Recover the amino acids of this structure.
């Protein structure tokens, strides 16, 4: 899986209250996404394009367990988030909804806003096409990679539901 | 080789003899806690074609984040939660007449040493105060837990904090955890488990231990633990049967062991906009405040309200300050009423709100206008956390909040 797009750069400690503020938490996703990171970069939500890449510093997504944070980022069309490190729950939530996330040390200093980036999830490589730099990211475990490639946990749950239906039908036939 | 608390619990829950840090395991969940998030979990499940759960008796549902519903949209969310509770057969449902989910979990006997508990709330680490492995997850992962009763975990490295000394006058567990977050940073325990040991940890009440484990999340912790002891057993008497003590092995391996003698600790304050921006209260003394909040899953328990009442007894909240007091649960509410704490607080001019998360995460019940300053006993001071992006929240102990209310500006509680 390769994601190629324009870079939106953010700093350290981008918390989930900055991504999806509590005061908007009851809004539907389509409304909520318009407020993503508005106080950090007021242009971001309006101008981000499908496939664009967020490059950030340390501890991205710290704070609340609210899944709206990765959900709204994904709903804006962001193709991948690459950060020097992620807060645990944000990372898990992103994987669970199929938003590609990968950590890469010193990634923030290798990119400027507006650079073109290519993120290779399988090879764990981050390329700055504009500057001609390639960085090695921290490889994801096979299981995590598979969940991301499948598009998150929901496709897994659908498979599970299908399997249960099949088994209960077989049970009925045997009886 | 010996195992830490986290390793022991994850080994038991995944049916293994031994596990070590860095390994991935699939573990059986002993209890799944959901708040208003149940609405999203339920919608996700139905969307995937699943209409039953692995074990409804291992699920606990609470309404706490915005109760009573502050607007029509929240009313709709609450209605969907009640519907889900009925359809999925969840008997451990507490609605909006119980309190903050973490407090309700421990008070109603859903937390015991050695359990593996996941919650749709980041502060689920609180359960470690009683020796349980508690951690936060999102709605989609919770839907997976509801369907299968299982979830993957990376076995975390463990950091040990050896806390020694006696807490000085008007210095509490909140000051200790703020100090540790300030010293070791908001990322110190990222993806790691934390164990609090030592003479000071032993001396701490269960209320104080809950404050510590709750805020260990703010240094990134996946789990936080106190070793179960007589205090734990006494606390659980009557609500949990067959409690077994669980201790880390003496030869367990720790990534780091930090020793801290805190007998000279001053009251601590975390300034905006990160929780690790911590300094002694003296640095901020004199800073004018508009609002004060005593409550939340961090510091809304009986001993928190009690110390506030001690300070405010016979005094008045400064006329320019609005003080909101939000008991963590209905049990706390009732006990505070019976002890006369509420009468004292109301007498001093406090506004008592119904138990729940209140304004802590910015949804309702006392938000801040642009340019306003609040001092609160809560757990986060992020930008926009409690209303306007241009408001400021300072984090402190209930004692420091109460003292600040009297003076109308950030104040040292040791003067009271």
């Amino acid at each position: 899986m390769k994601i190629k797009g324009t870079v939106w750069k953010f700093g350290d400690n981008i918390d989930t209250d900055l991504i999806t503020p509590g005061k908007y938490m009851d809004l539907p996703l389509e409304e909520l996404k318009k407020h993503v990171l508005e106080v950090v970069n007021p242009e971001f939500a309006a101008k981000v394009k499908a496939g664009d890449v967020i490059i950030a510093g340390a501890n991205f997504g710290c704070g609340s367990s609210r899944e709206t944070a990765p959900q709204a980022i994904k709903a804006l069309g962001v193709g991948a988030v690459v950060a020097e490190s992620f807060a645990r729950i944000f990372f898990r939530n992103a994987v669970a909804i199929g938003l590609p996330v990968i950590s890469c040390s010193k990634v923030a200093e290798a990119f400027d806003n507006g650079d073109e980036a290519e993120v290779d999830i399988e090879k764990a490589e981050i390329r700055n096409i504009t500057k001609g730099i390639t960085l090695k990211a921290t490889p994801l475990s096979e299981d995590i990679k598979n969940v991301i490639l499948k598009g998150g946990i929901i496709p897994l749950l659908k498979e599970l539901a299908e399997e249960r239906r099949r088994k209960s039908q077989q049970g009925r036939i045997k009886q | 080789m010996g195992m830490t608390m986290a390793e022991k619990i994850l080994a038991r829950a995944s049916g293994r003899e031994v596990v070590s840090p860095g390994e991935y395991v699939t573990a059986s969940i002993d209890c799944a806690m959901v708040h208003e998030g149940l609405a999203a979990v339920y919608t996700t499940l139905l969307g995937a074609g699943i209409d039953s759960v692995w074990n409804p008796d291992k699920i606990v549902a609470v309404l706490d984040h915005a109760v009573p519903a502050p607007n029509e949209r929240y009313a709709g969310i609450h209605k969907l939660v009640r519907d889900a509770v009925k359809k999925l057969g969840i008997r451990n449902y507490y609605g909006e007449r119980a309190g903050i989910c973490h407090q309700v979990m421990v008070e109603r006997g859903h937390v015991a040493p050695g359990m593996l508990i996941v919650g749709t709330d980041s502060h689920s680490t609180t359960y470690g105060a009683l020796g349980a492995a508690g951690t936060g997850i999102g709605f989609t992962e919770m839907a997976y837990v509801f369907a299968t009763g299982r979830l993957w975990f990376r076995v975390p490295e463990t950091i040990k904090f050896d806390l020694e000394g006696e807490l000085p006058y008007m210095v509490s567990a909140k000051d200790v955890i703020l100090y540790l977050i300030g010293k070791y940073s908001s990322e110190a325990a990222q993806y790691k488990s934390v164990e609090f040991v030592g003479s000071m940890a032993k001396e701490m009440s269960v209320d104080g231990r809950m404050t510590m484990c709750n805020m260990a999340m703010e240094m990134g912790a996946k789990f936080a633990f106190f070793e179960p002891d007589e205090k734990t057993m006494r606390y659980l008497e009557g609500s949990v049967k067959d409690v077994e003590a669980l201790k880390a092995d003496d030869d367990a391996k720790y990534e780091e062991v930090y020793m801290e003698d805190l007998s000279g600790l001053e009251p601590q304050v975390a300034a905006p906009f990160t929780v690790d921006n911590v300094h002694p209260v003296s640095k901020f003394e004199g800073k004018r405040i508009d609002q004060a909040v005593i409550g939340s899953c961090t510091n809304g328990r009986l001993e928190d309200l009690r110390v506030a009442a001690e300070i405010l007894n016979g005094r008045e909240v400064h006329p320019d300050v609005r003080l909101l007091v939000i008991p963590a649960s209905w049990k706390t509410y009732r006990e505070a009423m019976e002890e006369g704490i509420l009468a004292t607080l109301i007498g001093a001019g406090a506004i008592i709100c119904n138990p729940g998360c209140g304004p802590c995460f910015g949804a309702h019940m006392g938000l801040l206008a642009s340019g306003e300053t609040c001092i609160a006993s809560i757990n986060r001071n992020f930008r926009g956390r409690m209303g306007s992006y241009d408001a400021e929240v300072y984090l402190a102990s209930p004692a420091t909040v109460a003292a600040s209310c009297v003076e109308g500006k950030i104040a040292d509680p040791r003067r009271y």
About this structure: Chain B has two domains: 5-242+253-260, 270-415. Residues 158 and 193 of chain B are 5 Å apart (CA to CA). Chain B has a mean pLDDT of 97. Residues 72-88 of chain B form the longest helix (17 residues).
